[in-house]
Amino acid sequence: MTDGHAPGAPGGPGNAHRALRDLVMAATVRIHRVAPGYALDEPGTFLGSGFFIAPNWVLTCAHVVRSGEGNEVRVVYERGPGRGTSTVTGEVATVLPDGVGLPARGTWPSPDLALVRLREPVDHDCAYVTERPAAYYEEAVVLYSGWSVVGGELRRLSGTCTVQGTLGGWSDDEQIRLGGDVLPPGVSGGPVVDPVRGEVVGVLKSRTDRGLGGTCTGIEQLRSLPVPAEEAAAEHDDPYHAVFHAHDRYHRDRQRHPETDRSTWADVQNQLGARPGRALSPEERTQLLGRLADLPPPASTRALLGLLESLLGDQASIPHPAPRGWRDGLGALYESSRQDSALDLVLDYAMRAMSAERPFVTPGTRAAERALWEWVRQTAEGRPGPAYRRRLGQQWIERLQLAPRGPSAAEAGAAHATAHGAGRAPRLFVLLELEQLGWEPGRCDWHVSVGRPTGEVVRLRDGERTLLEELPAVLAAPLTEAFRQCDEPGRPADLQVALPHLLLGLDVDTWKPGPEDVPLGAHRPVVVRCADREQFPEPADAAARAGKTVPADEERREREARWRWIHEHGAQAEVLDCEDGLRVPVPAAESLRGLPHKTVPVLCRYGDHRFEDDPVALVRIVHGGYGVALWRRWRGESEAVCGEFHRRAGDTVAGAGGADRLPELVHALRAGLREGRPETYWAHGIALFYDDPRRPLPGTGDLLEAP
Predict the structure, then answer these.
(1) 375-384 long-range contacts, Cβ below 8 Å, gap at least 24?
(2) The whole model's pTM is what?
């Protein structure tokens, strides 16, 4: 595993190895059976260990999760010393080998792996896993981490073992033999780490009944996950690609994030002196894998093997199991070409991935290709030579002349919308209006109405001076009655929520009509409108005041023009308050008016009130002439990685085809969150501003019909 390094304890700076141990332990979790009434630290429910392999995904052993009852487990994790323990429910998504009942103790067949999908999104650390099959070197030292019961209490622990060979041959049954330390009960499922390269290479499988050591399974055995019977139409259709693309984007985005002084995996790998494939630095490798993960996956394993064979020729050494994703192909390059001048192979590989046959494309595919080309161009500067760089440039020019191979972005967006029932003929809707009382900001007057397709509304119920925290309970009955009047079989009516600008972040979509009911936003489209557009206070900052000088009729015409464009011609997302994880101020309304009409503003960090301009961010967007915007309610995680939100929000807006589909698409995302689908977790806290300028709210010129 250490590939030429001397045996024995890890060398190098002690600080780097301590930092590596901290990263490993931060990603290590313990797994419990679901047992109501038991405390989190109850050893009686403890099943074993595992670790976060990607956002909201845990890798462990099949025998660990199958020792519980049913298909659910509880995952308990810590973010670091003094940060406390948290718990979340997980669903056993897949086990290897599949279709195996719980065997006798110690006889679970290899590879004995399981992926657990969290039921809800949480913020946590992820381990970095190797992109190449584990190489086996006798006497190599590895680090392990896990949980065990020590003195009647659950304790997290780590240690070192030596690699003593393998069990099995070139088959799925091959395991790595470990010795040199006593592996206590409960550590099964924990990570095994190469301390020289600073990456997870395996999963602890078993311990010996007598003596030292046990066995572990190489991380590459996950490649044997079943291939979906039908051709994938999206990344999440294949769990293998869903997990590893999310893994690589996480580490790329974490490396970019500037708001924390904690070391990343690439930082520690750099301190250790690791050199992936002898051609890339850890930072370069992290960026390359992240950009490859933005592309659709290879069309098939056979297509990927063909690409590798075209690069390597007789040097091709195909590992077992065969490579399946872009990261696996990169690892195969490492193993097949060990000379120091292998950078040209890595760059050629990236160019081939850029132009490969696609099983599907997304609205972000072309942007992902451009980002990958930019990485290739910058990495090639100064090496391997001018003639080679000219050839790369010519390949990129030829690529620009071709459309992405696969369904077009427009076709993909239309198919996605159709799959979620998008397309919006005018129907009845429910309107909830809240009026914040200036002298009692913690209370609201409210109105519930039924809206007709023409925009006319019929008032059903009114209320006065209701506390904000009591609104969900007080409004449950009036809203239920309004929905009953508007819902059609299989088509719940939209809920439009007209809020004063200071309450635009109110999480109405999470309200439940009853204790056992589905949240409103998971059951029906819920959109936000601005109730006090004409009564905005004068902004405190000069930039905002400068943008507020446009006459009201000109602002209305601008809103109507933008509204028509994004509904007739499609839209493009523009993140306004965040650049590579760094919070930036939202431009003044005057600057926002200069953006193209196709723009849909997106806010990544709405509600992060550490910044004085946050309360006026949406004011600027409204006065900039926008009737549609997306944001997510900031949950306060100062270290949360936001790259996935930027990417997915952009794909959702571009793939909608027209802004009229966005309410249904956001509804589908909220429903996916409710159902625990990891491909939707990026949208946690998402809100949609959808304020039709052609249909003013009551009180702005419209007449209410008599009840």
Answers:
(1) 375/287, 375/288, 375/291, 375/350, 376/347, 376/350, 376/351, 379/284, 379/288, 379/343, 379/347, 380/347, 383/343, 384/341, 384/343, 384/344
(2) 0.84
